[in-house]
Amino acid sequence: MWAYFQKVIEWVKTLFTFYRSEMKGLNWGYLFETYKNSSYNPSELEKVIKKLMEDDDDVTKKAGIYTYVLSGDPRHLGIRAFTPSQKRTAYEKQNHVCSDCKKAFDIKQLEAHHDNPWSKGGETVTENCIALSRLSP
Question: How far out from the chain centre does Cα 73 lie?
Fold first, then answer.
């Protein structure tokens, strides 16, 4: 058991050369078993991690960054909110008409939701953003 534990620690130290408190408590055994045979560039991982750590507006789950850089699955980051630009794009694309009630509405009433739900793997990208009116039933 100790030898296995040491193997996991060495793998983590090799991939992630800078320790951050967000690393504490992650299921490193699972991550090791899942991604140990994949090839990663530690300096490239660090660049991505640093950039995501600095993103307080969108990345709400900082500990999820490590699983994200290994898996590529953005759901680990907790990114759920559309940017104002994404919302505006959906609003214009829908010709100012609510996707739900099918009525025209003022941009002041704009809300954005995921067309393919975030909980079911829908990404927070412009193509998955739909404009809804706050006044929609």
Answer: 7
The predicted model scores a pTM of: 0.65
Which residues make Cβ contacts (< 8 Å) with residue 94, sequence separation at least 6? 130, 131
Q: What are the Cα distances from residue 73, in Å, to 9, 76, 102, 123, 125?
A: 23, 6, 33, 9, 13
Q: Yes or no: say if 133 and 103 are a contact pair by the CB < 8 Å rule.
A: yes
125: DSSP letter: S
For residues 9 and 29, is the Cβ–Cβ distance under 8 A?
Answer: no
Nearest-angstrom CA–CA distance, 73 and 51: 16
pLDDT digits (tens, 9 = 90+) for 55-86: 876 787 899 999 999 999 887 887 778 889 99
Nearest-CA neighbor of 66 among 28, 11, 39, 37? 28
- Residue 25 CA, chain-centre distance (Å), reads 19
Q: What is the DSSP letter of 50?
A: H
